[in-house]
Amino acid sequence: MILFLCSGSEEYYAVLWDRRSKLIVSKLSHQLPDPDAQNGVSAVAFHPRDQEVVVSVADDCKLRIWMSSNRKRQMQSS
Fold first, then answer.
1. pTM for this one?
2. Which residues pair with 56 in a beta bridge?
């Protein structure tokens, strides 16, 4: 069952939503050092087998990989 949704935005965020409550869980920032620079997030996707990993890409053409705190801890301990 899908518990979360992720969307891009023109305000340099990938936004993670709780599907049931319809509330924002996290905003994943693609903000550039220049606060006036535009860097909209144009694509987001969950890992096909791990809902705790999301990838996003913004107008700067940089791909970012995001992991839950739980997944990061698991990777560090292995």
1. 0.82
2. 44, 64
